[in-house]
Amino acid sequence: MSLLGKAGRAPAAHESGFAAHRAGVDRLLASYRAIPRDANVRLAKKTSNLFRARARSDAPGLDVSGLTRVIAVDPQARTADVAGMTTYEDLVAATLPYGLAPLVVPQLKTITLGGAVTGLGIESTSFRSGLPHESVLEIDVLTGAGEIVTATPDGEHADLFRGFPNSYGTLGYSTRLKIELETVQPYVALRHVRFHDLRELESVMARIVTDRSYDGEPVDYLDGVVFTSDESYLVLGRQTDEPGPVSDYTGMDIYYRSIQHDSPRPKRDRLTIHDYLWRWDTDWFWCSRAFGTQNPRIRRLWPKQYRRSSFYWKLIALDHRYDIGDKLEARKGNPPRERVVQDIEVPIERTAEFLEWFLAEIPIEPLWLCPLRLRGNGEGPTAPDPSRPWPLYPLEPDRTYVNVGFWSAVPTVPGQRQGAANRAIETRVSELDGHKSLYSDAYYSEDEFARLYGGDVYPELKKRYDPDHRLLDLYSKAVQRK
């Protein structure tokens, strides 16, 4: 089976894509100029994959309506030019017909390429391909000063290129990104390997990251799920073009439940590459259970087009706006619940230690695991140089980390300060030499935040690219929720 339609690039379509993109940039610049000088610049965007609350603003926002599509795919060079607000769903739809995909495809369809670069993203290729920003070749950025600059690894704006990841739109917004693509096969063969001991899981995961194989078979994709301290799994994916039956988890069957088994041997499964990339989106990992969607009677009646993360997010937004969940808990005589929606990273050798602590202290399960390494020197045009790390999320080159994701809520305890569970997690992660992503609630002091996320580098970038502070600064946006 071939994923490739006609591999040639149509010049007319190529030029048309860039012309439409230029028109979108013109609208963006016009909207920037229309924002009052004393107002913060924000995106005029109706949806988001962020879980941080933020202050409402009546000021007009940036018009990004013309920056939502793939501009051009070059199958020979294996690159794509992509507008910053393009979703990964649309990006993958444009590249798969050529047998290509981005090096890292975050798990949810409506994450945008620009969002994954400025806010970080991760997936099961991250143990070999790093994070999304590491496959970026160049970025056009609308800075806080209202200028469009092109940032490259070695050009005039190399400091912005390095500082843009994890800046969350506080230095500017990407209007175009040129990214590397990789060849993919039509299918992914899966092995679900069960563990009864978290220390053993940690050890095996470390070996797979190093060897890129397990039990004699190559491993192209690697993530995992922890259900309890004695039931955890690594999910190993191998690209293949071998024809055969495939599973479908967009209907009645639920992907994360398919992972579980009692056999000492790995459980095997197969998906198309398309369904593998979006395996987590149908049920938002496992979070769809909060809406009853995993109940077979409800699932049968739930329209298939609404079994996707973007629709569940709308339900969450309604809950945040009207405090529906807390009101229902109050009717039962229960206290409000604290939202604990986080992704953290710890060094792989501290993974079991963190998991044991978390399972004992925080009543949330399952947990998602995803190992990652920055791309090694020489493994790409933007591979990290130890003397020039990614300063706003300073992971160490040549060191393996494990992302742990947990997305739920826990009961509050009367007398405890706001965010008690999240604060405890932040403290433990820092003790284990880790970081956490900033898409959700954070409670760091300004000094600790600066130590973890940019130090003296960020103020210098802010001074150069947003001298009048038209954009919020990172601490205000991530912690103070302005």
**Helical element count?**
16
Radius of gyration: 22 Å
Approximate strand percentage: 15-25%
Based on secondary structure, the structural category is: alpha+beta
Looking at the structure, what is the overall shape? globular
- CATH topology of the domain at 16-183, which one? Uridine Diphospho-n-acetylenolpyruvylglucosamine Reductase, domain 3
Give the class-level CATH name of the domain at 16-183: Alpha Beta
Q: How many strand units? A: 16
> In whole angstroms, how far apart are the ends?
51 Å
Strand order, largest beta sheet: 12-7-11-10-14-15-13-16
Regions with little confidence, pLDDT below 50 for 5+ residues: 1-10
Helix content estimate: 25-40%
Largest sheet: 8 strands, antiparallel
Output mean pLDDT. 90
Give the CATH architecture of the domain at 16-183. Answer: 2-Layer Sandwich
Commentary on this structure:
With 482 residues, the protein is α+β, with helices and mostly antiparallel strands. The chain has a domain of 168 residues: Uridine Diphospho-n-acetylenolpyruvylglucosamine Reductase, domain 3 (2-Layer Sandwich). Helix content is 30%, strand content 22%. It has 16 helices and 16 strands. Strands 12-7-11-10-14-15-13-16 form an 8-stranded antiparallel sheet. Strand 1 and strand 2 form a beta hairpin. Helix 6 runs antiparallel to helix 12. The protein starts with 10 loop residues before the first helix and ends with a helix. The N terminus is likely disordered.
